[in-house]
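Ticket #460: bound-state structure for magnesium ion.
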Amino acid sequence: NGRWARAGAVLKELEEQCATPSEKVKEVADAMTKEMHAGLESEDGSMLKMLISFVDRLPTGDERGLFYALDLGGTNFRVLRVQLGGKEGRVVNQQCEEVSIPQDLMVGGSDELFDFIASALANFVASEDEDFHLPNGKQRELGFTFSFPVKQTSIASGTLIKWTKGFNVNGTVGKDVVGELTRALQRQGIDMQVTALVNDTVGTLAGGIYDDNDVVAAIILGTGTNAAYVERADAIKKWQGPLPNSGEMVINMEWGNFRSSYLPTTDYDHALDAESLNPGQQIYEKLISGMYLGEIVRRVLLRLAVEAALFGDNVPPQLEVPFVLQTPVMSAMHHDTSADLKVVGAKMQDFLGISNSSFKARKVVVQVCDIVAKRGARLAAAGIIGILKKLGRDRANMKRTVIAMDGGLYEHYTIFRESLLATLKEVLGEEASASVLVIMANDGSGIGASLLAASHSQYL
Ligand code: ADP
Ligand code: MG
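RESOLUTION: The complex was predicted; output attached.
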C-alpha cells in the first residue's frame, strides 16, 4: 500500500545520494591528496590544517624510565603510567585509569574542566606503587594527548584552534592548553612537567612505530576521526624553521574538517550540520565518525516515521530527540542476525520507545543502518587511499606499508571495519593492497604519548 511505497522511495533516494562506487571513492581520495598538498603549501591553504606536530623523532625503543600520559579527547579521559625499560625491557609495567567527563564540564568553563582532569590525575599519582620507579630528585613527566585541533608552537606547547566532538568549553580557544593544564596541576599541588603535547593520532603513530617500524600513518575512527602521518620535512613548504636532522616531521592532518564537492551528502547531513555545535565545520567527520552515524540514521528514521508512518500512525516522540540513537545501538541493530530481527525490535523499544515494530519496518531500519555505515566506511577508506597516494604507497610491489588504527568505531563496528578493508582492496587493487596492512593500535596513543614524553624529557 501507499506507505510502503513512500518508505521505498525514501530508501531509494537515500541509497542513491549515499552511493560510493569505486569511481567516487577514487575521486574523494584524489581530492584528499590534493588538499594535503595545499595544506602543506601554506597556512590556511586548505581546510586541511596539516598541522606541524613538532614530533621529528619517533620512538626508537631506547626509551627508559617512568612516564605519565593523559588523554583528553572524547567522552572519557584516561590517565596512564608506564615504566619503560629500553630495547630489552620495553613496556615493563603500565597502569591505566579511565574517567568519564561529566556532560556539563564539556560545555562549561576552562578552569573547571582542567581542575577536574588535574584532580583525577592527582588521585592516580597517589596510587603509584613499587612497580614504578622515579629516580631521586627527578620530577615526574607527562605526555599530554589532546585530541582537538591545536596550533602547536613547540613540542610542549600549543594553542587550541577550536573545540570539536561536542565540546564547547568557554575560554580555552586561543590559549596554550599546556599552560591551562600546568596551572591546574599546580592548583592541585602535583609536581609534574608536561614535556610533550600530542594529538591522539600523533600518539597512536608513535605507539604504532614503537611496535612496528613499517607504520606510516595513524587513523582514529572513534567518536571523531583524524589522521596523522610521517612527512618529509622538505615537502612541508609552509615550515619556516630549520629542517630537522631526521628529515622527517609528523603531520596531524585534522582530516575531520575535510570537505569536497565529491562527498556524497544528503539533506539529513545538511540538517545535522546546521543544527550542530560547529556548523559548516568537520564535514567529513560528520559523515564517518561514531558521534554522528547513529544520529544520521535517527534523522532518516524520523522522516520515514513522518512521511511513511513506518512505526504506525503516530511519530514516536523519542525519535525527535537529537542523538538518542547512538552508534553502538545502530551497530547492534545492524548486526542482528536473528530471523525476526529481535535485536532491532528490542533496541527500538529501549532507545526509541517504539514497541511492536513490524518485521518490515525492522528490515527498513537495518537497511538504513547499512547505507549510512557503508558510506562512512567507504569514505574513510577513501581518506586512507588519499594518504597512501601522497606517500606513493598506492602501487604494486612496494614496501610493506602499515596503518595504525585506533578508535571504538573501527574496533567494535564489524560491518563498518570490514567494509573499509574491502574498499581498500577494491580500489587499490589486489597487488597494491597486498602490501598494505591495517593494524589495531589499541590505545596506542597513551603509550605513544608517554614515549614522546620520554624522548623529549628535560633530563636528556
Ligand atoms: P574516543 O574516540 O572518544 O577517544 P573511542 O576510541 O573509545 O573513544 O571511541 C568511542 C566511540 O566509538 C563511541 O563514541 C562510539 O561512537 C564508537 N563505538 C563504541 N562502541 C561501538 C560499537 N559497539 N559499535 C559502533 N560504534 C561504537
Ligand atoms: Mg580516543
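RESOLUTION NOTES: The longest helix spans residues 359-390.
TICKET STATUS: resolved
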